[in-house]
Structure to design on (397 residues):
């Protein structure tokens, strides 16, 4: 496969939030994706083929450990770089974007944030190097948006934690080596309390997989059920402090909302980019006034995507600078996912028969974008979070 010499310019306005190293990193990502991913993504997606070989190659570039320190196998980059990367991965291929967002933000970040040194060396290092994939288990069949209603439980037998229960809609299910999961360790403390976090390896006794979900979009990503039947988890695989898991998982979702927002942005951008290519090919640029009606939707979509990008980038920077970024992440995720749904919906219609083709960028992005309104807290939940933060932050004069 020949190297890509020329890349199309960024369609959205430049951001003052980006430093030269961020622009260089984006160019590096785009060159890599243009050469290694964009020529083959449709085949993987059509056959629902998990991209193990692509991920193995991406690991050589360091892309599976972008935000983690170099001493733990990562690239040592900031949260803004991670958001940009998820945006670009998703622009090239939605399934790759969700795989990477789950691996880094959900399956690896909790270990970096709350793991002890031994856990970081044993689990985070191979995850950051891309030698292994990470997964996450929070959602349950009876507790989708209500994470405090977790029923999966864990009891300590003196040497091991014994887990029983199930987790639903887990990204990278069957493909990950380790999973960060929640379980109730003290049921007497009430809803949302007494929940702990554990690192579970795929080969632990009593751990298995249920059905693989047959999804409308993101077909090449593995999404399924995790089953725990007296699953034996070593005592040292308790992540952080016992009973603090709910706090850990909510903090993880705060960060995950930024990456899901970035994913939505990438999907919306991908569809817009294809539409712009088509319009330029029709040579409308000679007389814009004559085609104002035809071009107006592109202007509106690009403006909304530009606003979403600024919110996401700002939230990513806030994550690195402030101890709390709950409102920033929820706003960015909610707005970007709503924008992506509007953009992809309009562009499918805009492109008519091309928009309806099964593996066109338009239809693929439209199907994939719906996940962004649901994952890491539905948009209904995000509105509650935003409103709660608004009221909490108001101090009467």
């Amino acid at each position: 496969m020949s190297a890509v010499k020329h890349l199309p310019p960024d369609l959205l306005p430049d951001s003052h939030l980006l430093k030269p190293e961020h622009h260089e990193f984006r160019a590096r990502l785009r060159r890599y994706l243009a050469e290694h991913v964009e020529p083959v993504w449709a085949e993987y997606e059509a056959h629902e083929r998990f991209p193990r070989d692509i991920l193995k190659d991406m690991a050589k570039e360091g892309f599976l450990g972008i935000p983690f320190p170099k001493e733990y196998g990562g690239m040592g980059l900031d949260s803004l770089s991670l958001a940009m990367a998820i945006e670009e991965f998703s622009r090239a291929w939605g399934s790759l974007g969700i795989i990477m967002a789950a691996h880094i933000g959900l399956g690896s970040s909790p270990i970096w944030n709350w793991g002890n040194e031994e856990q970081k060396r044993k689990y985070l290092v191979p995850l950051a190097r891309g030698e292994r994939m990470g997964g996450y288990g929070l959602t349950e069949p009876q507790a989708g948006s209500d994470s405090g209603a977790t029923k999966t439980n864990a009891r300590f037998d003196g040497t091991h934690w014994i887990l029983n229960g199930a987790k639903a809609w887990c990204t990278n299910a069957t493909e990950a080596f380790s999973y960060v999961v929640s379980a109730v360790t003290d049921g007497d403390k009430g809803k949302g309390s007494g929940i702990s976090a554990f690192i579970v390896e795929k080969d632990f006794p009593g751990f298995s997989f249920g059905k693989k979900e047959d999804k409308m979009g993101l077909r090449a990503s593995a999404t399924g059920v995790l089953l725990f039947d007296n699953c034996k988890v070593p005592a040292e695989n308790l992540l952080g402090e016992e009973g603090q898991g709910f706090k850990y998982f909510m903090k993880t979702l705060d960060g995950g909302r930024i990456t899901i927002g970035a994913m939505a942005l990438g999907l919306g951008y991908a569809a817009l980019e294809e539409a712009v290519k088509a319009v330029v090919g029709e040579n409308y640029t000679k007389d814009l006034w004559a085609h104002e009606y035809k071009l107006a939707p592109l202007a509106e979509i690009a403006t909304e995507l530009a606003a979403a990008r600024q919110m996401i980038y700002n939230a990513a920077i806030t994550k690195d600078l402030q101890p709390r970024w709950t409102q920033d992440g929820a706003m960015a995720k909610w707005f970007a996912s709503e924008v992506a749904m509007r953009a992809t919906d309009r562009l499918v219609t805009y492109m008519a028969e091309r928009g309806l083709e099964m593996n066109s960028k338009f239809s693929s992005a439209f199907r994939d974008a719906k996940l962004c309104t649901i994952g890491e807290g539905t948009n209904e939940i995000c509105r509650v979070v935003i409103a709660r933060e608004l009221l909490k932050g108001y101090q009467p004069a």
User: Anything to note?
Assistant: The two ends are 65 Å apart (CA to CA).
